[in-house]
Amino acid sequence: MGDWMTVTDPGLSSESKTISQYTSETKMSPSSLYSQQVLCSSIPLSKNVHSFFSAFCTEDNIEQSISYLDQELTTFGFPSLYEESKGKETKRELNIVAVLNCMNELLVLQRKNLLAQENVETQNLKLGSDMDHLQSCYSKLKEQLETSRREMIGLQERDRQLQCKNRNLHQLLKNEKDEVQKLQNIIASRATQYNHDMKRKEREYNKLKERLHQLVMNKKDKKIAMDILNYVGRADGKRGSWRTGKTEARNEDEMYKILLNDYEYRQKQILMENAELKKVLQQMKKEMISLLSPQKKKPRERVDDSTGTVISDVEEDAGELSRESMWDLSCETVREQLTNSIRKQWRILKSHVEKLDNQVSKVHLEGFNDEDVISRQDHEQETEKLELEIQQCKEMIKTQQQLLQQLATAYDDDTTSLLRDCYLLEEKERLKEEWSLFKEQKKNFERERRSFTEAAIRLGLERKAFEEERASWLKQQFLNMTTFDHQNSENVKLFSAFSGSSDWDNLIVHSRQPQKKPHSVSNGSPVCMSKLTKSLPASPSTSDFCQTRSCISEHSSINVLNITAEEIKPNQVGGECTNQKWSVASRPGSQEGCYSGCSLSYTNSHVEKDDLP
Amino acid sequence: MNFSEVFKLSSLLCKFSPDGKYLASCVQYRLVVRDVNTLQILQLYTCLDQIQHIEWSADSLFILCAMYKRGLVQVWSLEQPEWHCKIDEGSAGLVASCWSPDGRHILNTTEFHLRITVWSLCTKSVSYIKYPKACLQGITFTRDGRYMALAERRDCKDYVSIFVCSDWQLLRHFDTDTQDLTGIEWAPNGCVLAVWDTCLEYKILLYSLDGRLLSTYSAYEWSLGIKSVAWSPSSQFLAVGSYDGKVRILNHVTWKMITEFGHPAAINDPKIVVYKEAEKSPQLGLGCLSFPPPRAGAGPLPSSESKYEIASVPVSLQTLKPVTDRANPKIGIGMLAFSPDSYFLATRNDNIPNAVWVWDIQKLRLFAVLEQLSPVRAFQWDPQQPRLAICTGGSRLYLWSPAGCMSVQVPGEGKHIPEATDVAALLCAVWHHTG
Q1: What is residue A167's predicted lDDT score, i.e. its pLDDT?
Q2: Do you know which Gene3D superfamilies this protein is assigned to (chain B) (predicted)?
Q3: Domain of B74, in residue numbers
Q4: Interface predicted TM-score (ipTM) over 0.85
């Protein structure tokens, strides 16, 4: 087995294993030695396998090997290789069809197995790569986990340290607090002690002082004296008064007077201040009312009636107040009312201002959101439009330039010179000349046309005659061909009607023949147009030119319409075309169209020329 | 600005009369009175000893000359040169002497603050006030001169007595809730008395004229407290400068703090103009600002190298490291002065001694900072307009007004301006006179 494993490539090992299992289960064949190798013939045949295979069956053991194979195949569920024996005696013969079928099936199986194997291999590879990936992921995650764990540990450590620090600091703080407390206590105790000492010392001092006083003062010190030349009068000129109870009372009075004066003064000041403030308050209130009253309607309509009613209440109050306040400014109730009303109004004002602020901010926001966008859109649209216009203008200019160049190059120097100095007068003259030329040509054409018409009339007459002839001939034929029944008569009627109509058509043609006259002109006009366009200068004067052409084209269109179908069929396309073109060209102001019209008409005219008989 | 020739002075005694007409100066034991306009000597008085203190009476009629060593006070009359008056305090000694606002009484404080003797020039009467408190500012008169408040100490308790100045009658006597009263000050309207406690405690009490306690204010505890107090001329604000380097402004209605002005060493607000004195820096003179004040005299500016320049805003001022283990540390707001129109407040933080801060009271914010080269000794507002004069002890005088500031060289070679207050007083009087 082990040897086997080395021979087969690793991808097959599993299969070979299963097979070997099989073989081990199955009964050992006579050539059990080779059995495994035989089985492995279902596996892609390597050279050495081949060699084994060739060694499996020799000339001697064909029967054996066949029987062995049969046995094996039957165990695998294949039909027997031998033909069904008719009798026991008769030797069973090898059924080649069965063998071939078996072979085929085996091959199919082999292919299937190969496919499966491939699939399995790819899957295996995939799984292997997946595995690798997962493993790498796993390792990465592991690393991450490790690092985060380390980090966590670090953080925990730091946290611990900080907590430690914190505790220490707390301890320190506590200590400091204690210290402070202690120091304060010490200070307090020292202060008390100091005070005590001070008091003691002071007492002593006082005693000494007293004693000194007694010593110094009580002994009649002669020295203590005032030596004065003469007494001076008092500053106020009054004489000194004796000290009596009266003076005492007077002094008291005076003192109180002074105090009273001071208080009065202060009160006055306060009153004045109060009055000022009240004035300000009143003014403020008035202004507020005036400010709020125009808005009174709005909030009523807008938000809710509460504010409105409040305002109205306030106004009423204010009205009363203003009257009352005239009577008594400092009345307490009035003051209360006043302050209340002011407060109310202030609240309203505040809310209003807030609302306004909100609105403003909203507007701002909206402005930022919508207006900006709109404006941007507008802007973009506008720019797009403008760009488009510019593009159009550029194109126009380009085409104009191209046309001009074409004209300049294609036509003679006359036109180029004319292009260069496009004076109206010269153009006019030139046009006149051309006009005369054109007229001449027209005359010629008319002459031609007359001849044409005459020919046409002739032709028409001839045609009529021919038609009549044909009709009669057809009638004749019909009469001859069909029996006289009702239907036929109807048919005849129809036909006659049809023929009649044709006649009528012809009649119309006849009647309109004089009008056909311009048709020839129309036919001829593109030619002359082409001639005109040849000398057409790129100047505003082309517009009136266009007008003339449009006139002509109108004529031609009318003619075109009037001409019978058969007659102008070849021309009709061209005519219509020109008609379209001319209508475009006749649009005043649109030079581009005019030019294109010109160019197109030019080409058309060529076509028409070709079409012309 | 004009400068006269230099007068001889001794012990920095030089005072203008309140009406601005006379100038009294002392040389040793002689008192010289001059006319302000002509500077001619009007009177010359000779005292018994070296004069240590002089004071004009409120009506500019008398001058008091105190000779503390001998316990003597001599009074001279301007109207009657031959009139004389000599008060001898005898063995009780003398530590302070002052006029009462009416100009007819003299209050002498004896040694050890045993008593205050009130001598009258009108009558021969003498009054004694016992137990005056030995403190920084123990006597204060109302601006109209009607009442005098006196801090007293009896039995380890502080009291305030209010006297009527016309007859020295005790009007009110009340104890104050203070540990150790340090100062008292009447509001300019004469109706409120501010009483503040020792620097060990931040406490300021406000008493009405009739002795009622109006309010008490204390910003913090357990730290050095109030260092200086100033009323605004309108009596509307009370500025309290404390050792924490802040000025707190109290209002007169609720007596609560309106605002708090800190005095940081670094100034970051770009709105604040910082004037920095620069010496001998012509090349730096580009940013210098020496607007001559509108009413500066015709005298040409001396060729001074000292100029102000506007410092670009993040400015850090020079600070002193206070010695904390000594008494009276150099920290806190030591000087406060409202401009006469109450629009500005000038302050000095003692640990930034070179800088003067000018605050806008209307807007309650810092307006300008002036940084000098040497420590500011004193400043004084012009009584007529918002103009501040600053002395640093050098030979220069610095002037600030909302329009700008300038430095003026005071003539007198090598002679330092003796005492800032005198110069300020001089300026004051000059302004008073010209204005």
Answers
A1: 92
A2: YVTN repeat-like/Quinoprotein amine dehydrogenase (2.130.10.10)
A3: 8-125
A4: no
